[in-house]
Amino acid sequence: MIKVLLAEDMDMVRGALVALLSLESDIEVVAEVDSGDEILPAAKSTRPDVAVIDIDLPGKDGLTAATEIHEHLPECHTLILTSLGRPGTVRRALDAKVNGFLLKDAPSDKLANAVRSVAIGRRVIDSELALSAWEADDCPLTPRELEILALAARGRNVADIAADLFLSPGTVRNYLAASVTKLNARNRVHAIRIATDAEWL
């Protein structure tokens, strides 16, 4: 019997997923949680074989929770569910060493089979998600350019960013100008939008 922990914040969706998995004779849902903060404590108390985790959860996000499970309960495999197949999200999931990554609208038998595969150590990535990550452009910005653009996205002005990072205002302006140029953006606001949509920020 494969023991499953299910983390999903929408009650109706969680109930449907539990019902679907409960129809399988070899799968048992041993815990249900609705926030990321509850995942690790529930996993420690129930010791599931697989944690099926929605990527967007209140509290800790699904990828952070999956990383914690790998650190504290390496015998528990993780399967991430998402409704959006953005390339940046797929890459973050792979970086977080999740065992599986599946779209929420996948057929129900696909979910059960993914749980079975992940439980025995196989990696399962939805083909559409894998293709989107494969075709995505790499971020052209340096870590420092990303850091400064992220601060600008939070509303920090040049002087504030310079003070935060112990740089001169001129250096900060140069980094922002380089980001605009590399992203072929019209201006700083457009550069922030491009980087955000690509999930580089």
Automatic annotation (TrEMBL):
Listed SUPFAM superfamilies: C-terminal effector domain of the bipartite response regulators (SSF46894), CheY-like (SSF52172)
Positions where 4-aspartylphosphate occurs in the chain: 54
The entry's keywords: DNA-binding, Phosphoprotein
Positions of the HTH luxR-type domain: 134-199
InterPro entries: CheY-like_superfamily, Sig_transdc_resp-reg_C-effctor, Sig_transdc_resp-reg_receiver, Tscrpt_reg_LuxR_C, WalR-like
PROSITE patterns: HTH_LUXR_1, HTH_LUXR_2, RESPONSE_REGULATORY
Coiled-coil segments on the chain, per record: none
Gene3D superfamilies: 3.40.50.2300
Domain of life from the UniProt record: Bacteria
Segments forming domain Response regulatory: 3-119
PANTHER family on file: TRANSCRIPTIONAL REGULATORY PROTEIN DESR, TWO-COMPONENT RESPONSE REGULATOR
Protein name as it appears in the record: Response regulator transcription factor
Source organism (scientific name): Amycolatopsis nalaikhensis
Source organism phylogeny: Bacteria, Bacillati, Actinomycetota, Actinomycetes, Pseudonocardiales
